[in-house]
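tool=predict chain=A
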Amino acid sequence: MLDTVDPAVAGFSEARLERVTQWLEAQVSQGKLAGASTLIARHGKIAYQQSAGFADKEIGRAFALDTIVRIYSMTKPVTTVAAMMLYEAGCFQLDDPVAKYLPEFADTPVWSGGDSPIDQTVKQSAPMQVRHLMNHTSGLTYGFMNTTPVDALYRERAIEFQSRKESLADIVTRLAQIPLLCQPGSQWNYSVATDVLGRLVEVWSGMSLADFCEQKIFVPLQMHDTAFWVPEQSQDRFAALYLPEMGGDMSSIGGGSERVPQELRGGLKLADSSENSVYLSPPSSHSGGGGLVGTIGDYARFCQMLINLGELDGERLLAPSTIKYMRSNQLPNNSDMAAMGQPVWSETSYDGIGFGLGFAVVLDPVKASIIASVGEHHWGGAASTFFWIDPEEDLFVIFFTQLRPSSTYPIRRELRARVYQALVEA
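tool=predict ok
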């Protein structure tokens, strides 16, 4: 864990931080969340950390700072860091075709789009590149989007990367037989791209994704509770996963169906028990896009490494130039995501937000309608976890809970407002 200091030392008003605590406790008392924790760090020190509610309501397990949660898509920045470590080792170039390393993608067709059936396709006009996987312009999608025949085929063929039956290589091979949603590089679409990137980490390193992350990232950064499953000795700290009573179906995320109003979502129901979860046993494949579990303290060390430009406590994972490149907008012509396709759903808003390698990047806070610094970068997970890093303020914030989907309540915007109103000194 990073050192903790008096909030004033880090430029925060302790009185104003009380609004964060009140908000956190209100999420629990109002029945929106079973439990949650928040960590705010600045200038390399923790200025605020607080937990509220339950990690598992059914057995009365409190939500604590050492609670282990499913971080889902907050796995993506970790996998991208792993890939960029191998880039620095000379294993690939960012504009290499993916098919150079995964030949099964060489002939993957592209769906014709519009009202076309899934079997109406064209050839790739240019090959999918490695960088397209890192910035979600690969032409891949997610099965839960419910918007096209392409994601319908993902569901039909059970493209699920956190498997207990198949290898990562086998799943990627099956994925490559499904048409792409669009031409590589032409649109931004949230997708399984980082899962494919995780497979490339295996190809480049000769190690499983889990072993590479453990040996090259988690051990050096002392992220002792972060892994692709929860070992027996840690299972008494694992959280349960919840859904709202109404409107908690992931299948509604990308579709045009009417969403249940927030005030009618009422209460919580158990989605995955802490005592009988798939995460309590090792998977046969490791999801680079969403498979990790961990604690808020572990992820704080990962964030501090990023804000330190690749180094923490004498362990350097990446060069400063690489981190700066990753946090630069990678979309063509410095576009935001709104200019790169039809906004459907992702772990961020589209207006005024670009995308680097592994996380979203704030280009225009006014257009995005959030108080933030230009260059702030962030991402979240399907269970409403979230982090952001603000290099201008030398600040990062992490929020952990276990409510799926993350679009249930505007938690992230509400927390942002309360954090920045409490920051009163440079």
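The radius of gyration is 20 Å. The longest helix spans residues 14-29.
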